[in-house]
User: What shape does this take?
Amino acid sequence: MMNNLDQLYQQVILDHSRERHGEGHMDEPQGSSFQVNPTCGDEATVDVRVVDGRLEEVSWHGSGCSISQASISVMHDLVDGEDLATVARLANDFDALMHSRGKGVDDDILDELEDAAAFEGVSQYPNRVKCALLGWMALKDALVKAGIDVCALDERK
Assistant: This one.
């Protein structure tokens, strides 16, 4: 039997896979990255534009399972318009969540991840972790292509 939190999390993933936030093409992005998950065929392209240390715009398009597509939609909501240090922190927190193997992470990380916390259950399934991380990998690579190593910006390291 599924508890209420599991039901809520499942609903967040289903909602985002149907109503994809930030989906579309960007004219003249500063950085763009196409990523494929060879395990299941998910694909995504993430485009970024950075202005004055802020991720001014992020857009994406892709196809694949509901987990990969919902994860990118949630990622968009979290990082669009944020300063790069926040983007770095969120990317590292989501990575930690996905590699927790279902053991969970601190509540403050879950709070910061907002709807992305819904993917905590996915971390129990190694084959699905790649699906959830696909868009985040594309985001980091697109930022590198724009000349920004976002992982080096997390002030907690």
Remarks:
- The beta strands are 31-37, 42-51, 54-63.
- The chain has a mean pLDDT of 91.
- The longest helix spans residues 126-145.
- The longest strand covers residues 42-51.
